TrEMBL record:
Keywords: DNA-binding, Repressor
Lineage: Bacteria, Bacillati, Bacillota, Bacilli, Bacillales
Official protein name in the record: HTH tetR-type domain-containing protein
Highest taxon of the lineage: Bacteria
PANTHER family membership: ACREF/ENVCD OPERON REPRESSOR-RELATED, TRANSCRIPTIONAL REGULATOR, TETR FAMILY
GO MF: DNA binding
Residue spans crossing the bilayer: none
Record domain HTH tetR-type: where: 3-63
One Pfam family it belongs to: TetR_N
DNA-binding region: 26-45
Amino acid sequence: MQEDKRNKLIEESMKLFSEKGFHETSIQEIVQNSGVSKGAFYLYFDSKDDLLVAIFDYYTAVIIEKLQHVNRGTNDPFQRMQDQVAEIFKLFRDHKEYLLVHFRDKIHLGNKLDDVIIRVHKQSYEWVRESLLSIYGEELVPYMADIAINFDGIMAGYFKWIAIYDFVFDPDQLAEATVRKIDTIVKQLLVEKPEPIFDPSTIEGLNLTSESSNVENILAKLKQYLQKMKLPKGKKEHLSEVISVMKEEFQKEEPKAIIINSMLEQIQPYSELDFWRKQLENILQK
């Protein structure tokens, strides 16, 4: 019930932000449209700025959930990526208010939102990297940053025009066009083999404020997503305890890899949690 109220506040605020703008929308308007009291608002968010950060997190979680669902649908990596891109376009078609806020409002909330945006960017890069490696192999590694920038530019261009001009579009058709464009660029690079423009290690080595805060954030996301999963109560409680054990271990001065790996093995059967599990595995290997 509490999570429903929080999500309602997020969804209604997005509609208001898209109609009136972030700065022109008051907390009073948000709570009225959401059917909750102002006191309830402050149970979930410290401020309107804090709400905006939650919005970025909320939609990121929705996107990841969609991508993971598609990930289980086919063994063809090219088709899988195309289907995943289609899901992203469908999401933004159905939640155009997110695009409107993103492209029409100039919002800067300092380090807190900047960290969220950097994290989302890195998650996006890791997804693109994993998808392209599964299609083209290790030969593409030196060009990974360049290709990711091209991919991001194509997607952002479509999003911007859709938001501003309210275009009607077919998500599947747009996804096919996007992936085909990237395929053309990749094949040209692999034939011509020019000097890469950007070094992918710059992105892959990017951390947020610290490794410990990154771990805490990943574990928080794991727990948040776990609550949404349809599992028997006993299994859900067990997995929640697994996450708590990992949190305690990571907080130690010298975390024991054998304990954390043991906990990660218990999460492995649940493919919905793969995204965060792999991030923790990467941190553990450093």
